[in-house]
Amino acid sequence: MTAPPTARRGHLVDTRPLRESPAFARMWLGAAITGIGSQMTIVAVGLDIYERTASTFAVSLVAAFALVPMIVFGLYGGALADRFDRRRVALVAALVAWGSTAAIAVYSWLGVPDIAPLYLFITLNSVAAILVQVARSAMVPRLVRLELLPAAGALGGISAGVQLTLGPALAGVLVAYAGFGITYTVDVLLFLGAFWGLYTLPAMVPDGERRRADLRSVVEGWRFLGVAPNIRASFVLDIVAMTFGNPRVLFPAVGALLIGGGAVTVGILSSAGAVGMLVLGLLSGRITRVRAHGVGMVVAVAAYGASILLFGILLAVTTVLPHDVGTDITEANIPALVIAAVLLALSGAADTVSMIYRTTMIQAAVPDIMRGRLQGLFTVVVNGGPRVGDLYIGMLSVAAVLWFPPLLGGLIIIVVCAVFLRLYRSLREYDALDPKP
Q1: InterPro entries of this UniProt entry (predicted)?
Q2: Is residue 130 a part of any domain in this protein?
């Protein structure tokens, strides 16, 4: 007897969205190529600023300066995506993002000593990237069948895993051995993948009555959350997880002071979570067939918090039992580095499970004419949360020891998840076959 298709796939990722929708496949591949370069620049900018200032707080200011513009343009970008052709919105935003990346590269080659232009260019780049992400996410349900949306989300996890694995690792190596100018220039070249992936898409005008892209349209998106408890809960959980459980601004200091290894260690720690994302995405076959997306999302966020908590404990142990470390990778505390990378990989895997369920809930339960605005809100949460977290950890690391922010943050995440699972009945009863916002 022939096994049913789902049984044959087993644990491996469901690739039907790529096979059935060539347009989705091109957009997915283009985003992956571009994302590698973007992650290189994000890591390189952090290293660049830390090298100039020797201050974790100065690194965290990248997030602080970009936060308000990202929120404003993320929300407005959602309104644009519900008013105009989403393909065109994404293309224009990608052009701005590419130009700001080129400006960062020129700034580096010129050797400008002032760091203020670097903050300005990376903020512009982050804002444009938000608009691209909003429009791209809103287009997925128009390119992929409803029942394949979880599989498309898993493929998105693989793409993110590749980006976050290769990008930071390449940044660490290139910065250490070739310099910042080369690193930024490689991103400029890789960004061309975004244009190919988006330009080949068909026109994507929203279904339904389109409103003007103004404040009233944005407010309608907020009001929709008032009657969408499951979507609202998913937003809050992600904000909590990304605010209190994202220790990335600590990595330069960890590489210099606690574990050692300098830029190479920063690259390893920055890409470790992405390795977990990539592996989980490749083995997501059964996960994408789970119907209880609400419960699955909450449990995954709690697992993420537990991984970050253990990472904080590890840093505390390296403080209590210090080793002589240096900024060369041969002078690093290798056992601590390996354990830290494993814990961060587990956090990446848990985050991917949460992302698959959360993204599918938004795409399946939200009407197309509202999807851009909800994706805008969601993108603000996804991208704004880590930046608030960067500021939280940067400020707390000044007032306390380096290991305290992730330890406290992990505890907060676990407690919040327990409360949500107890209080939100709609999350406990959510069924993917009958999606309700």
Answers
A1: MFS_dom, MFS_trans_sf, TM_effector
A2: yes
- CA dihedral sign of residues 113, 115, 120, 124: positive
Residue 425's H or E segment, with its range, is helix 425-429
Q: Which two tokens stand for residue 384?
A: 């704004």
* Higher local confidence (pLDDT), 289 or 60: 289
Cα distance between residue 168 and residue 270, in whole Å: 6
Number of domains in the chain: 1
Q: What angle do CA 130, 133, 139 make, to 5 degrees?
A: 145
- Is 7 inside any structural domain? no
In a domain, 436, yes or no: no
CA distances from 156 to 41, 179, 180, 311, 386 (A): 20, 31, 29, 26, 19
Buried b (16+ CB within 10 A) or exposed e, 328-357: ebeebbeebbebbbbbbbbbbbbbbbbbbb
* pTM over the 0.90 mark: no
Distance CA 284, CA 350 (A): 12
249-262 tens-digit pLDDT: 888 888 777 887 88
pLDDT band at 396 (very low <50, low <70, confident <90, very high): confident
Range of the domain at 383: 13-196+211-429
CA 407 to chain centroid, in Å, comes to 21
pLDDT tens digits for 87-118? 999 999 999 999 999 998 998 888 877 888 88
Q: What is the C-alpha to C-alpha distance for residues 243 and 170, in angstroms, rounded to an integer?
A: 26
Read off the CATH number of the domain in which 337 is found.
Answer: 1.20.1250.20
CA distance 101 to 96: 9
Number of neighbours of residue 433 by Cβ within 10 angstroms? 7
Beta-carbon contacts of residue 255 (< 8 Å; ≥ 6 apart)? 261, 262, 263, 264, 265, 266, 269, 327, 332
Asked if residue 320 is part of any domain, the answer here is yes
- Residue 283: helix, strand or coil by DSSP? coil
Amino acid identity of residue 346, one-letter, is: L
Q: How many Å apart are CA 114 and CA 186, to the nearest integer?
A: 23
